[in-house]
Amino acid sequence: MNDATYVLDEGLGKFPKIHELQVKLREQGLSQEDRDKIAEELKTTESQATSFMQLVNETVAMMQLFTATLGESFTMPEIVQRLAGMLDYNLEILTGPKSRTLKVENPDKYHFNARTLLPEIVGLYLNLGFSTAFIDAVAADGRSYKPEMMETVTRILRDKGMKTGPELAAWDKLCKEFEKAKKKLDSAELDYGDVPAEFEDELMGILMEDPVRLPSGPIVDRSTINQHLLNNLSDPFSRLPMTIEDVVPEEELRVRIEAWKEEKTREAREARAAAAAAGGDEMDTTD
């Protein structure tokens, strides 16, 4: 995951600079000295882009194989949110406003082909679309996920013939699942309102689902410490060595959190029902 994130950031991140330098070289009136400096910088950036894009293509191909055969491993709580965020971010780079800065002269010489990379990344979504955890993680990505972005991707895939009919149908169905999960998430956030401090993860500030106490004392969600330990086998507060076996489940706190969530959800449903009755609207009985 770290390698995939790194090479995609570095690989695609070189093209705005290449684009900028190529535009500068087309300017009239540049001195020979300035032209030589720009050309040298362009050569260096092109070399870096070529190296990274070779790694990008290899990494994405490997991820396609792994997600197709070992999908469950990519939907574990400590991984799935990072994966969803990485995929959403790169999908936005390839199809959003920033995609204009990826347009460079002779992209093939850098082993960069957006018409190939985009459907490959979409293929990763399709491989993991079986997982509710993955769908929820995409919907919860506040940085890059937007239903409008997915609509743009669908249009590009269809208009450019990048996916077959059955693949486009599967993608369209998956996008609807993302949107449904997003609406449910937004509704839940409104239902919960202000979260009591004791129910918040002391490292990330999020509402916990499976609280555990660290050896140093603070309480965090199990998914938080699992994700931290993927990169650093230490207590994030004391920096002392630790493993997941060192945490202590806070079962009583977990039960209280669940009870609080159920109460807040019940209150929100009753409020919606009362509002609907007062306005003469049909009651919303969906979860």
Essential attributes:
287 residues, mainly alpha, Herpes Virus-1, 2 domains, three-stranded antiparallel β-sheet, 10 helices, 64% helix, disordered C terminus
What does this molecule look like?
- It is a single chain.
- The chain has 287 residues and is mostly helical.
- The protein folds into two domains: 2-192, no CATH class; 197-279, Herpes Virus-1.
- 64% of the residues lie in helices and 3% in strands.
- The chain has helices at residues 2-13, 15-25, 32-69, 77-95, 114-128, 132-139, 147-159, 165-192, 222-231, 251-279; strands at residues 211-213, 219-221, 248-249.
- The longest helix is centred in the N-terminal third of the chain and has 38 residues, at 32-69.
- The radius of gyration is 23 Å and the shape is globular.
Write the layout of secondary structure elements.
Layout: H1 2-13, H2 15-25, H3 32-69, H4 77-95, H5 114-128, H6 132-139, H7 147-159, H8 165-192, E1 211-213, E2 219-221, H9 222-231, E3 248-249, H10 251-279
Antiparallel strand pairs: 1-2, 1-3
Helix pairs in contact: 1-3, 2-3, 3-5, 4-5, 4-6, 6-8, 7-8, 8-10
